[in-house]
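dumping this here before i forget
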Amino acid sequence: RCAILRDSPNRRAPGPDLLAYDHLKRLTVGRSNCGYAASCVAAIAFVVQRVLHGSIPAEVARFLGSARLIALARDDAPDGSRRCRPIAMSSVYRRLALRHGLRKDRDAIVGALVDHQLGFGLPSGAEAAVLLIEAAVELDPGVSCLALDVSNAFNTVDRDLALREAKALSPSLSNALAVLYDTPGLVVAYD
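structure:
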């Protein structure tokens, strides 16, 4: 009845609304829903459809475009100093809407990106690629492997171009992308 929610991963960190998939799943299945499962499913579907159609008020778009930010400590600085890695978690409703839209246009998106992104469209694709390289090096002692991280590619992407291409690739997401990414969001930091 609510496949996109049912298939969503459990135990994911909540966004700025402090809701996780697990919370919505409990409202829509089992005995803990107090008999209101159908109403909860309808309400969640209503929000997801409004996001996908881009028909949400600016205040809601700003909230759904926001993220909950947590800094994780890292010990991998070359000089031995401690650094942090910021992790941003978006609203569960935003994630549900985008997952739903991506599901509709998955084949077109995978077809366009598979030659440009290692492991794209495969379950655990990046991990599989690493294991494949490790196996090749192990099987042939004459083979070497050098890994370089020359730049932080995420910060070099032309955001406007990426949005135009994403909208062209995924008609199901074009309205949601316009409303979620063209509206400035907030970043809420937590200790």
